[in-house]
Amino acid sequence: MKEKVLERFLKYVKVDTEAEYGVLQYPSTKKQLDLAKILVDECKSLGLSNVESDEFGYVTALLPSNIEKKVPTVSFIAHMDTSPDFSGKDVNPIIHENYDGADIILKNDNSILTKEFPFLKNYIGQTLITADGTTLLGADDKAGVAEILTAVEYLINNPSIPHGDVKIAFTPDEEVGRGTDFFNVKKFDADFGYTLDGGEIGEFEYENFNAARILINITGKSIHPGSSKNLMVNSVLIGNEILNKIPPNQTPRDSEGYEGFYHVVNFNGTVAETKINIIIRDFDKNNFAERKQIIENIINDLNLKYENRIELIIKDEYFNMFEIIEKEERIISLAKKAYEEASVKVNILPVRGGTDGARLSFMGLPCPNIFTGGHNFHGPQELICVESMVKACEVVINICKFNAE
What we know:
eight-stranded mixed sheet; Aminopeptidase; globular; four-stranded antiparallel sheet; 16 strands; alpha+beta; 22% strand
């Protein structure tokens, strides 16, 4: 499996699938369909059934059951796109065999230093893959894609391993929060699933942030500064006033574990108009609602002061899947058993973010998240361990096997 998963991964990361924020078309970038076509062809060559890529770019396929009794249909899901936070074009993957524990020197002052990333010592003697420092690698989530197909191929080539129906799906636009916008859960027809979109080996996640995006549009009044006394309304200053009223020390930099935050993503303004983009994250449903209310109160107060010059838009993005998964103990215990069989220690963590699985869980497909083996996603210091990728394949195989019992 090591050779197979490595071969697939190296092929996929060379396909530019960078998503784009704020685009109405779906997927947000047509180049994601280049990888979709490759995956359709590969699924067909493996002999999978019901292989298709629909009008939205979702790739789905079925590995039919090889047992007589009826068991729940399990599914595995990964996303094809890469983050727009850093370039995913012309990725040049570098293989570091028998890693020696030293700093990994890359271009553009993007070297991966042991003093900054002490986890590197855990990979001495193993095979690491990085980009060259000019792009991200794309392990998020092309590693998940490679692992799912490698595991499925292993099941095909080893028919003595029992399994029920196994569905697979590869989605676009996960990185811009739209991965499941058009996913047809009813047509997919699986009882439960797992996303392979996690980090280092052992991670297993079925809690994630509740998430909302706050869009604030401020209309000012621009007048020549030389004759603007009591007339000018500077929208930038109103924007600053808004930010100064948000509770301090509750930013991503100030938070970890189960702590939530406010994060100012973008602030762009002139005297006449200012736009602010803020995201809110919290694991606790009540705290999440309170954070949104705090923003509403700030805007309401300032609208009284500035004669309704502030427009507030609050968009819920996804919710904590734990609300769904906690009712599905079998899904959790099945994964834990699969980790144990693969000699992987389970490390249950909250996802300080979201996955396709979070939204799918609320759409009727309970879907916790399995590790892929990577670190430092969304930037040029991204890396992944090949041996961890193999273990992710083993976990997928074991889930299929134990689900058939």
